[in-house]
Design brief:
The complex is a heterodimer of chains A (499) and B (314). With 499 residues, chain A is of the alpha/beta class. In chain A, 35% of the residues lie in helices and 21% in strands. In chain A, β4 and β5 form a beta hairpin. In chain A, α4 crosses α5 and α13 crosses α14. Chain B has 314 residues and is mainly α. Chain B contains 14 helices and 2 strands, in the order ααααααβαααααβααα. Chain B is globular, with a radius of gyration of 19 Å. Classes of the chains: A alpha/beta (499), B mainly alpha (314).
Amino acid sequence: MELRYGPVHALAGVDFDLLAGEVHALLGENGAGKSSLMQVLVGARRPDAGTMQLAGSVYRPASTAAALDAGVAMVFQELTVLPHLTVAENLWLGRECTRRGLVDRRARCDDAERVLARLGREDLSPDCRVAELPPAARQMLEIARALLADAKVLVLDEPTSSLGVADVEHLFTVVDQLRTEGLGVIYISHALEEVRALCDRCTVMRDGRRVATGTLAELDDRELVRHMAGRPLDEVFPPRRDPSARGPIRFAAREVRAEPLAAPVSFELAGGEIAGIAGLAGAGRTELMQALFGTRRRQSGSIAVDDREFVATPHACWDRGVGALVEDRKHEGLAIELPIATNIVLPHLGPHRGKGAAGALLDSRSIRAAATATGERVNLRCHSVTQNAGELSGGNQQKVAIARLLHAGCNVLLLDEPTRGIDVGSRQEIYTLLDRAARDGAAILVVSSHLPELLGLCDRIAVMCQGRLGEFRAASDWTQEALLAAAMPGPAATAGLSS
Amino acid sequence: MKRLPAVLGPMIGFLLVFGWFAFRNPDSFFAAGFWLTVAAHTVIVALAAIGMTFVIVSGGIDLSVGSVVALSAVTTAVMRQQGFDVLPACGVGLLAGVLLGLLNGVLVVRFGIGPFLVTLGTMGIARGLAKWLAKNREVQADAGWLPEWIQSRPDPEWLVVAPAVWLMLLLALVLGITLARTPFGVHTYAIGSNEANARLCGVPVGRVKLKIYALAGLMAGLAGIFYFARVRSGSPTGGIGLELKVIAAVVIGGGSLAGGEGTVLGALLGALCMTLLEDGCTIEGIPTYMQEILVGAIIIFAVGLDRWRHRGAR
């Protein structure tokens, strides 16, 4: 199976097989290609090469609806049930059975009740509005929808991420029952203990490839983690910065609280250092960055730059030389219909005001010149800075976002996944840029899901897990295995969440 | 390459309308008098369209302009009736426009209600206020020297076009530069293109939007004063459907209803297109209901063109 996004191979020749009556775990870091593989499986994307077979015959779903008709269903991490409809309406959505043009309520409710009973949720009334149900019940509805469609293959994407302990147990019994009924279940999860408790076999993916498949009896935890993390260090990182060359504290967060962080966060960044935060998707890293930069409401806590506290709003941050780069480049990070130059200078228009009487006007020549010069510093490849930012490739768009930080003269950089979705070449250039900025005295905080990047680039690393930020420790004290282990929610953490 | 059609839109529309009437009615069409009339008639739509450009570029919409024009016209007329001089009366008319614009802005910014719904509501509120002030009938008032400003043949003849046309051009120049060259203008484009990104870049999104809606109210208020000057009475039912013409003018002029695109010059040309169409229809003897159908069709066509220009980009 191959799948390409532009030049990036999301899937590079993956083989995967699922038996009837088994629960098959799919493991891998964020971005390893699990989601891409499943999207192909449920017909949301077409593969660029490769074939699939379902029960011996060729399976080529043109859409998710076609996949469902063929008996392949997926329960997404973000639930897709519609809150304003009733349980029965949701279950039959898109496949309403009608009698003389009207929805046949009786038949519909009977079938709905039967399926819910099979899942041990007789307590859910088919006429109940979904908005009134808790997440666990909504998830059961998703599974019920798949069963109503007579699914043979069911994909569960991190199904326990929003469930309490009791609900997890119920989910496990349901999955176990589906296995005995002969369904094949693909179970995507980060939690190894769940996988051990539930699954028969497991496949580990990394960099769009399958790196291991086997029964869980054959693979112990250490081996699984090594497979998930252990890639050859294919990146070349800048040489280590000397810790003694670090400057004074540049940026300090004290007891910052914000939804949905589980505990207040405090840390300090010195000039000349790059600090990293590791963690799984959903651990609260992006939310922490937003709280620091003022795009998310803080409940309490203070933020100081060069020992001076201030109310951190984006505007105030840019004023004090604090710049941010967000994870969601497309929707938040860039204005893709506007010229590159505007994107670069937007947070820092001050220096481009005209002189004297023309002070109200912006000097477009000075904007173009500054944008071109900053573009050259980040090795931006474009015809002209008057091009729209949307015409650039992902890597070059990211360079525009970084050029914005350089143009504003920021000396505190808050970077959320600065190299996500970017090819190796551009990545190297970004590492070099960040290293140079740090050597020039900037304090840099990097959130990344790419462990080798954190280990190779950062001076200190902390791990965030379920809304709690751990202690920053020297990068040399960490290994990929240790980072991954710290990022995995343990049983104790799961119990704490549900109480 | 992508920029080209944005300028072409109004030009093509202009040439089409132009060509059609020139072909049908060359005699009156090439008479200078016709153009002086068109220029004077453009003023009301153009002034409102200049304000609307800022709103649309910022990704919003203002449906209340037609009603605000009526409110401002009635307010000015009532002030004149009460014996105030022309200038103070106009000042109060403008104030009414600004206040309605600010109301739009506050509702959009502070309460996070979508501009479509907010201005749909204030469209009713402003119309009701206008009828209330006018006691539900035309306000007969002496407009003083105001009509001279908008008559198609100006009094000192060396002015060539009506003084109101000069005022319109001056405001278009000032606000065109404001939109293209000031931080406020850049912020307007940034908000319309990607509001989350604008916020991230430290753009004071709320304050900028408030200014934009207030400006749109001010321009609609000014348009209302000239409406009063043109019909020489304060009509509380005036300007019904004007918002459609104004929005059409901006969109024909390259404004994108998705935000982030549009220019004052384009809106000016778009307003000229709309007026040319209207006056051309009148000369042709095409009834007003036909004109309304045409305006509706043009809006749909212009927005369709805008979607087509952005196909695949979103």
